[in-house]
Amino acid sequence: MKDLSAYKNAFSALETPFYFYDTELLSRTVEEVRRAASKYGIDVHYAVKANVEERLLHIISAAGLGADAVSGNEVSRAVECGFPKNRIVFAGVGKTDKEIRNALGIEAFNVESLQELEVIDAIAASEGVVADVSLRINPGVDAHTHKFITTGLEANKFGLVPEEFQAAADLLKRLKSVRFTGLHFHVGSQITDVQDVFGQECVRANEIANFFESQGLALEHIDLGGGLGVDYQTPDRNPVPDFELWFSTIANNLPKRPGTRIFTEPGRSIVAQCGSLVTKVLYIKERQTKTFAVVDAGMNNLVRPALYGAYHRIDSLDGRGASARKYDIVGPICESSDVWGTDREIPECSRGTLLAIRSAGAYGSVMSSSYNLRDKAPAYFSEDFNK
Length: 387
Ligand SMILES: Cc1ncc(COP(=O)(O)O)c(C=O)c1O
Prior knowledge:
Blueprint: H1 8-12, E1 18-21, H2 23-40, E2 42-47, H3 54-62, E3 66-69, H4 72-80, E4 88-90, H5 97-103, E5 108-111, H6 114-127, E6 131-136, H7 165-174, E7 178-184, H8 194-214, E8 221-223, H9 243-253, E9 261-264, H10 268-271, E10 275-286, E11 291-295, H11 304-308, E12 314-316, E13 324-330, E14 339-347, E15 354-357, E16 379-381, H12 382-385
Parallel strand pairs: 1-16, 2-3, 2-9, 3-4, 4-5, 5-6, 6-7, 7-8, 8-9, 11-13
Antiparallel strand pairs: 1-10, 10-11, 10-15, 12-15, 13-14
Helix pairs in contact: 2-9, 4-5, 8-9
The structure holds pyridoxal-5'-phosphate.
């Protein structure tokens, strides 16, 4: 893992903006998640939605992680990139018939409603197979994170609520072409209150598991979803998230059940820190009260700041020796929300200065668009520069 400014000369020859992925850091992160997971007996499924770059998926699948998909295309992409089909779980409130049919044979459909359970049963029956299903539960746990990335509250559209548990158990016992394998939870994303939020999730998961077991439904796994937060403020200080804290919290709060495995589905914590969006300063606009640095990356390349007011650290790759100045760093898109950061103190920059928008590996490229008919940012990988 090298400091980004070490790539400055190589980057200067490339058209901006582009995503840069530090594949050495990704490998280190995957190694660490594996180490911590095996210590606590946890089975990790990478949440593909966070980043679908094939090169990154190959690194993650080669390390032996399973995959968590939320669309039929994600299931296909995961299979193409080396994840065994029987290590893929599939969630999502709106699975289509075609997506269900094509995914038959996966490790588990994380079923989000009673009606979906009946639909999967009918489709599996029509194909002459039995589908493994796990129930996605809405546990009523507040993730203490941004409301757009909170998923485990009754107000959110995900999963089954307690009033539906008895009907779900009855249905599972009656239907012939689905086989119950476990329970699935996911309370939210960018969770930094790790012990409190995941501790509560485990307590609820245990109560709900007791209910389904009391109905004679054995649990092969309990899937606790993803959500571990990353350090967006100081990514160089914490390039690898604290998987040990997350997994030890699970081990301390979820009583072990013989024959029941524990799954997790990290997305952001695997890929966020290895990615940067590299952009160039196009123009400096001096105003009486502030100075704008207009860059060539826009909200179409990385929408998190415009969508959630998310913070990304911005580093200058050219700034050695320059004195610091405050800028509002803004993109080229015709929207006032196309702002990377206000009052950011960085070394004085000018037309052509390269900036790196950090921690952009998760929910960056995957959420990009061609709004304003702009090009999508291509991807480059550190291992290609380090040869
Ligand atoms: C069902 C499910 N699992 C896992 C994840 C991954 O979450 P994160 O990237 O916060 O780890 C998500 C993200 O929203 C999700 O919806």
